[in-house]
Amino acid sequence: MELLASPLGIAIAGLLGLLVGSFLNVVIHRLPQMMERQWAAECAEFTGQPAPEHPPLNLMHPRSRCHSCGVGIAWHQNVPVVSYLLLRGRCHACGVSIGLRYPLVELLTGALFAWVFAAHGVAWATLAWFGFVAAVIALAFIDWDTTLLPDDITLPLVWAGLIVAAWGWSGVALPDALWGAVGGYLSLWAVYWGFKLLTGKEGMGHGDFKLFAALGAWFGWQALVPMILMASVIGAVVGLGMKFTSGLREGGYIPFGPFLALAGLSALVFSPQALLQWVGL
Fold first, then answer.
1. Integer CA distances (angstroms), 234 to 164, 196, 205, in order
2. What radius of gyration do the chain's Cα atoms show?
3. CA 209 – CA 192 distance, rounded (Å)
4. How are the residues of the chain apportioned to helix, strand and coil, as percentages rounded to the nearest 5?
5. Residue 68 has pLDDT above 90, yes or no
6. What's the confidence (pLDDT) of residue 240?
7. Which residues, including other chains, have CB under 8 Å from residue 208's CB and lie 6 or more apart?
């Protein structure tokens, strides 16, 4: 395809990624709050207590605002990356520092969208992998912040992996995708129960099973070992680093989802075989 090798096409995909990354920042911040409100409402209904009242909140409303002073952010102050640079990383109203993670999420999404387009060009597979990238980035940061991997993202990601395999968009045969989903889920499920029976503690959340199942659906069962090895090695290194720098949270835990997500994104860019070489196998 002509547009496949076109710098203009890749640039357009990158710009689209920046916009999607800006929206992902909203998802990362608001979706856990929306889940907590839903849980509180369900708990109140179960106990017969009045549900707590909150201002309306969803992914579209209210308009983005400063988390410190509450001043709304105008559209021209919400341009991905550019606005952060022009504002020098601070709120225009109160001067409070804006987290560097916001432009980093935008840049990461933009870079991966550009890579996907460069690899696949104008194709249905491109749209499929765009969705994969967006979902995995959102899951990684939500899990890092809250230790939650929302079913609203993980379960559709599993089904999407099976569907795109059936349609031939992911380059993975449907049987391989199916057994990838099954193997991904059951492998971490077995680890979870083995650890719990031996120690009486929960070593990971059920969301990790679902995320690994999703990665198996997208990359096939052959990719499970490379991805879990990479996630485990990087997670162990980061965990040790945080322990020695007193960066671990209360209870000494570190979420595993971000490292699974990193392994999945690495498999997308480099291939599962390259991951095996990285971990020395």
1. 29, 23, 18
2. 20
3. 9
4. 70, 0, 30
5. no
6. 82
7. 149, 188, 192, 256, 257, 260
Report the distance separating Cα 145 and Cα 159, nearest Å.
25
The structure tokens listed for 36 are: 């907590």
Strand partners, 72: 65
Contacts with 255 (C-beta within 8 Å, 6 or more apart), sequence order: 143, 144, 147, 205
Instruction: HSE, CB side, 13 Å, CA atoms: give it for residue 83.
Output: 17
Is the pTM higher than 0.90? The answer reads yes
Does the pLDDT at position 57 exceed 80? yes
Angle at 271 between CA 265 and CA 275, to 5 degrees: 80
Contact call for residues 101 and 129 (beta carbons, < 8 A): no
Rounded to a whole number of angstroms, the distance between the first and last alpha carbons of the chain is 37
List pLDDT tens digits, range 98-128.
889 999 999 999 999 999 999 998 899 999 9
Q: Are 197 and 205 in contact (CB under 8 A)?
A: no
**Amino acid identity at 196:** K
Backbone dihedral angles phi then psi of residue 65, each to the nearest 5 degrees: -150, 165
- Looking up tokens 């007193």 gives 246
**pLDDT of 235-274, one tens digit each?**
888 888 877 776 666 666 789 999 999 999 999 998 777 7
Residue tagged 């002073």 (tokens): 69
Length of the chain: 281
Distance of alpha carbon 151 from its chain centroid, rounded? Answer: 12
pLDDT of amino acid 20: 97
- Chain-centroid distance of CA 200 in Å reads 29
